[in-house]
Amino acid sequence: MEIRGPIELPARREDIALETVDELTLVGELAVPASSAPVATLVTLHPLPTAGGFMDSHIIRKAAARLPALADLAVLRFNTRGTTSPRGTSDGAFDGGEAEQFDVAAAMGFVRERGLPRPWLLGWSFGTELALKYGREHDVEGIILLSPPLHRATDAEVAEWADSDADVVVLVPELDDYLRPAEARERFSAIPHAKLIAVEGGKHLWVGESQTRRVLTEIVAAVNPAALPLPTEWPAD
User: Is 189 helix (H, G, I), strand (E, B) or coil?
Assistant: First the structure.
């Protein structure tokens, strides 16, 4: 069968709860390969909850549905404070990206407790702001930024990554609503080792199977390139 749309490939999936230092409980899910140990971990940070972003935002949901099987990755996704999805509602209220630093810390604490390998932060839109602002506080192998708007992350916070050993991979849609490749190159130039990928025809929401496959391919290229090329079909039961 063709791998597309909402298809969910085999994995071990577990509903989880993350506890923050300010005593909130965040709901989430951990997906790991069905019959082997993961080779790396994606800690996903979803788009803006006040604009409909949540742990089921489609790229994040498809990463969790496909990449444990296709690329041997663990995928952790969760609702930041005050965010609702079919999994449930996380405690607290949206704080504009400030108290959400504790949500990122709770997710990274869970990764450490479980001994999950080689964590990467994967942020999309608002999630990229959290990765940029707070990712340096944690032991991450790299950050992957999808459609970064750079509304909340300051130029100084971006520049701080210049001294980090962590990889910085930035996917910028050609037709993004907020930050397009030319401006992105200028604003990320403060990080000499940043890899900026301009995606021809891409839009902020990465709608369509071709865009989904491109994004998932670039994620795997950064985290586990040995798994490329990603299959487009899966054996039917």
Answer: coil
- Report whether 53 contacts 43 (CB < 8 A): no
Do 47 and 57 form a contact (C-beta atoms < 8 A)?
A: yes
Could you give the 3-state DSSP secondary structure of residue 160? helix
Query: Would you say how long the chain is, in residues?
Result: 237
User: Distance between terminal CA atoms of the chain?
Assistant: 9
Q: Do residues 104 and 80 lie in contact, with contact meaning Cβ atoms separated by under 8 Å?
A: no
Predicted TM-score (pTM) of the model is: 0.98
Q: What is the pLDDT of residues 18-47, one digit of tens each?
A: 999 999 999 999 999 999 999 999 999 999
Cα–Cα distance, 63 to 236 (Å, whole number): 20
Q: Tell me which DSSP letter residue 4 carries.
A: -
Q: Which of 130, 107, 111, 136 is nearest to 53 (CA)?
A: 130
Using alpha carbons, list the distances in angstroms from residue 112 to 132, 139, 204, 215. Answer: 20, 9, 32, 26
Q: How many alpha carbons fall within 13 Å on the CB side of residue 193?
A: 11
d(C-alpha 234, C-alpha 10), whole Å: 10
Quick one: pLDDT at residue 165?
A: 97
Bridge partners of residue 74, in order along the sequence: 41
Residue pair 79/90 in contact (Cβ under 8 Å)? The answer is: yes
